[in-house]
Amino acid sequence: MDAVEFAPTDVDRCRPPGPTVGTTAAAARSMLLPVGGDWYLIALDEALEVIVDPVATELPGAPAVLLGVVNVRGAIVPLLDTARLLGAGRLGPCTTAVVVDTDWGAAALAGSAPVTGVPRDALTAAGPPQAFGVPWRVDGRAVVRLDIAGLVTPTNIAGRH
Predict the structure, then answer these.
(1) What is the DSSP-derived secondary structure letter of residue 114?
(2) Measured by CB atoms within 10 angstroms of the end CB, which terminus of the chain is less buried, N or C?
């Protein structure tokens, strides 16, 4: 498994002083995570690391949303099927994962293609907050900026089939 880590200077430079989910500052410092045919924004201040081709160890009897666990620099981190968390079916092959910080510790959100950085001038607000985030447009394409705290919860992990 190859990991791409954000250098501390890059993360510090990209961290705003506490923007909210819907602000331009929060979305302007984001990356796109592809999940099937859809794209989701994840704020850089919530992303700890990007893993290319994660190798997960499956856990028998685990909820379907839990693809397994991955070793991230010695820490055992759950790899979650982002599509199932969003109620959009099953992800399929996982080629990328973004390790995010949650209220319950680190978790990896699985993606179906490499992540992409988002230039500031490519973002346009597209509407009010939805169930798991705020809609935006990136170069004309509809995306949702994920609300990690609202998405990665024990209830969502246990209840998504």
Answers:
(1) -
(2) C
Tens digit of pLDDT for each residue in 48-82? 989 999 999 999 998 889 999 999 999 999 999 99
What is the dihedral angle through the alpha carbons of 129, 133, 134, 137, rounded to the nearest 10 degrees? -150
Look up the pTM and report it.
0.75
Alpha helix (H) residue ranges in the chain:
8-14, 24-28, 82-85, 148-151, 154-159
Can you name the residues that pair with 142 across neighbouring β-strands?
137
CA–CA gap between residue 85 and residue 22 (Å, rounded): 20
Closest CA to 33 of 100, 115, 107: 115
